[in-house]
Specification:
With 71 residues, the protein is mainly alpha-helical. Helix 1 runs parallel beside helix 2.
């Protein structure tokens, strides 16, 4: 289901393209799912509704994250 993709997307992206920072935006209120997304490698996990300035800040912070690989 959708929750599974929220939990697994960061780890899949980090495994395939580790230099791509992941910001998760979710409507989930489940603390376990949010923690799982962080543990899977999300730079930031935000809940909807999210203030646009907060989202932009998270993306800017993630974009400044040092790149570990470019292949």
């Amino acid at each position: 289901g959708y929750a599974a993709s929220v939990n697994h997307a960061p780890s899949v992206i980090n495994r395939r393209k580790p230099w791509v920072p992941v910001v998760v935006l979710t409507g989930s209120e489940d603390a376990g799912e949010l923690a799982a997304a962080r543990a899977a490698g999300a730079v930031k996990v935000l809940r909807k509704p999210c203030d646009p300035a907060v989202l932009l800040g998270a993306v800017a912070t993630a974009a400044q994250r040092p790149q570990s690989s470019s292949t």
